Amino acid sequence: MGLQACLLGLFALILSGKCSYSPEPDQQRTLPSGWVSLGRADPEEELSLTFALRQQNLERLSELVQVVSDPSSPQYGKYLTLDHVADLVRPSPLTLHTVQKWLLAAGVRNCRSVITQDFLTCWLSIRQAELLLPGAEFHHYMGGPAETHVVRSPHPYQLPQALAPHVDFVGGLHRFPPTSSLRQRPEPQVAGTIGIHLGVTPNVIRKRYNLTAQDVGSGTSNNSQACAQFLEQYFRDSDLAEFMRLFGGNFAHQASVARVVGQQGRGRAGIEASLDVQYLMSAGANISTWVYSSPGRHEGQEPFLQWLMLLSNESTLPHVHTVSYGDDEDSLSSAYIQRVNTELMKAATRGLTLLFASGDSGAGCWSVSGRHQFRPSFPASSPYVTTVGGTSFQNPFRITNEIVDYISGGGFSNVFPRPSYQEEAVAKFLNSSPHLPPSSYFNASGRAYPDVAALSDGYWVVSNSVPIPWVSGTSASTPVFGGLLSLINEHRILSGRPPLGFLNPRLYQQHGAGLFDVTHGCHESCLNEEVEGQGFCSGPGWDPVTGWGTPNFPALLKSLLNP
């Protein structure tokens, strides 16, 4: 044991010299609000780290996304299998050999890969990890509403320079689990009682978006949908059953989840987890539903990264995935953001529809060198996902036209350039909007989001057997829009067509056909004298607050059914 420790120490000294580099120098390492350090981790404690190995043929991957997602392409809908994706992006033999040799030399042998071979998760002791990654120093932290425990390093890590062409980054060192931005708003005051509703329920959604009792899944196709949850939160089957008993009486539905991937805790149900499941399954009614529940939960793992790895390790997946996860773009390293974006491209080539919540902070706000700027969110800002904003009823108690929900996340990426599919729509907005914020606040040439929207204000949710009113956030609008896309997939599959896949190229080509245009309202931003808390404002056509608008189901079905 003494000799092995000496060899490991010698190896670490060699790596920590001048021949090393930092893969994520720009990764934010400040402790998030609500988290506290519990001190250094025991050197003999085990943790897991995820090594993102350098992929091949990414330009070709990008080209394939375009051709399988563009309705004017002969390859439209001819999606790749996971094996085809693996053949395309699999790291080179040199990369696989070099990384394996490095890990074995450090005594790291307990590793597991994925089908695409571009991720490697290894279990090792804290002592081994700190020798392997000079500069890292692992501490225990606790935080979040569920008092989650994680192991993270407050200091940057180094890798041998020889690994620079082979490793994108190492996961499990810096990024903390996300926290929910879902909020319960005060109940609005009722003025008059004729024709009112007392909050958003499945029946309110179905009435507003023009669904009939027949607009449900057939129960006979191989159609399926999923929501992914990365908070330390769980849903309960009994809550889902009670929700459907209270609110699902007017349409055929399923009262249980078909499959849970990951660990379902035994504790109290979380409002966000309950919301995701209940509204995905009531909007996408009678369609088989999966839940990804903090998959692979371990103190050293990053739940969102684990979900991306699961996508690379399952050949058969649900067609629609709704995700209510987001981080500030500026808090994430360039290496991490670019690699996650590649994972989203991989999903798009396979015909998966990924819907992400646009966030609940409007345009956001942060200070850069003493100057305020808007603060985009990722993965909402990825060009390879469909991002969902939020709306409110013009009259909060009547099923009326929708206006902007002031929390609806939206804006322009500081990382990703504007994709070609949205060039025309965004240019038109920038040239015609009468209420543009100062140009110094946003990157007008960046990927603009959201793409679509749905109601995000005043939902009823059942959690821990209790009906809870006035729950609000784009965590609500996202599963609703996802469920409606699942119903459209049902029609496509039953008529012999492929599922919708990556929706954006088609959505923008059709100029938002099948959607209610939301033209009134602005979202929130920096509270300063220059913009006075106002971000972007909605208007005719696409805008960075509600995208193309909210679903008018019969018209949306008609516009997306063929080819």
UniProtKB/TrEMBL annotation:
Keyword vocabulary terms for this entry: Autocatalytic cleavage, Calcium, Disulfide bond, Glycoprotein, Hydrolase, Lysosome, Metal-binding, Protease, Serine protease, Signal, Zymogen
UniProt-listed Enzyme Commission number(s): 3.4.14.9
Signal sequence, start to end: 1-21
Subcellular location: Lysosome; Melanosome
Cofactor(s) needed by this chain: Ca(2+)
Cofactor note as given: Binds 1 Ca(2+) ion per subunit.
PROSITE patterns registered for this protein in UniProt: SEDOLISIN
Biological processes annotated in GO: central nervous system development; proteolysis
SMART domains documented for this protein: Pro-kuma_activ (SM00944)
Listed InterPro entries: Peptidase_S8/S53_dom (IPR000209), Peptidase_S8/S53_dom_sf (IPR036852), S53_propep (IPR015366), Sedolisin_dom (IPR030400), Tripeptidyl-peptidase_I (IPR050819)
Residue ranges occupied by any Peptidase S53 domain in the UniProt entry: 199-563
Binding site for Ca(2+): 517-518, 541, 543
Function: Lysosomal serine protease with tripeptidyl-peptidase I activity. May act as a non-specific lysosomal peptidase which generates tripeptides from the breakdown products produced by lysosomal proteinases. Requires substrates with an unsubstituted N-terminus.
Protein name, as recorded: Tripeptidyl-peptidase 1
Biological classification of the source: Eukaryota, Metazoa, Chordata, Craniata, Vertebrata
Record gene name: TPP1
